Amino acid sequence: MTATHESAAESAVPSAEPRPAPGATPPRRPLAARAAAELVGTAALVAVVIGSGIQATELTKDVGVQLLANSLATVFGLGVLILLLGPVSGAHFNPVVTLAEWWTGRRGGAGVTIREAVVYVPAQIAGAIAGAILADAMFGEPLVEWSTHDRSAGHLLLGEIVATAGLILLIFGLARTDQLRFAPVAVASYIGAAYWFTSSTSFANPAVTIGRTFSDTFAGIAPGSLVGFIGMQLIGGVVGLVLVALIFNPGREAGE
């Protein structure tokens, strides 16, 4: 076999190296690069969410059409961002995902360390605030205007538990079944669906929630609703991890 044939044969063999995605931060990347990816990715995500909401309200007065436009833009934007930045940082863009990954990997397994989590979370929050300001600037809105959209009702808080638990179940379920290559489509699709089947329209992300307080537009949330939403998101993260352990427990599978 010639060297050319050997090279072709080697290229035909699939790489055994896992393809990073949410829930599986890739190794060997400088922490500064990963933090930058989390900041930029979260900023872009919030800019998509808020910007598409502003655009939708300028084009139509139909709230259903506004939500449809907002959710579709979020699906496409999130999918692209995960595909682009997943190989760098894991594309968390979400403190709940980062904390869940730290928790599952804290005994030496795959995942972020506490040091990395301490860097990731502030980067995500800073990115979310920057993304909100950028969206406001693009549409001629005040750069910082606290939202007046109250979301403190109990049924909305329940919606956040459901949305966040489902997100964590999806991400870590994909990781447990070695299907993280589908994360860009799966995670974006879930968020798009949760826009419609949860009463809260599925924020499911403390950083994004904080960012959305900075814009008094369609996608905003009043600062007074912030603590309740973030608290329910953290509870949802715990519920999601419990479901992952129950459904994808490798010890149970080995025993059976």
What shape does the CA trace take? globular
Largest sheet entry: none
Q: Report the β-strand fraction as a percent range.
A: under 5%
Based on secondary structure, the structural category is: mainly alpha
In terms of quaternary structure, what is this?
single chain
Order of helices and strands: HHHHHHHHHH
Q: Please report the total strand number as a whole number.
A: 0
Q: What would the average pLDDT be, to the nearest integer?
A: 89
Cα-to-Cα separation, first versus last residue:
46 Å
Into which percent range does the helicity of residues fall? 55-70%
Q: Which blocks of ≥5 consecutive residues have pLDDT under 50? A: 1-21
Structural key phrases:
single chain; 256 residues; mainly alpha; 10 helices; disordered N terminus
Write up this protein.
The chain is mainly alpha-helical. Helix content is 68%, strand content 0%. The chain is built from ten helices and no strands. Helix 3 packs antiparallel against helix 7 and helix 6 (154-176) runs parallel beside helix 9. The longest helix has 29 residues, at 31-59. It is globular, with a radius of gyration of 19 Å. The relative contact order is 0.17. Mean pLDDT is 89; it is low at 1-21.
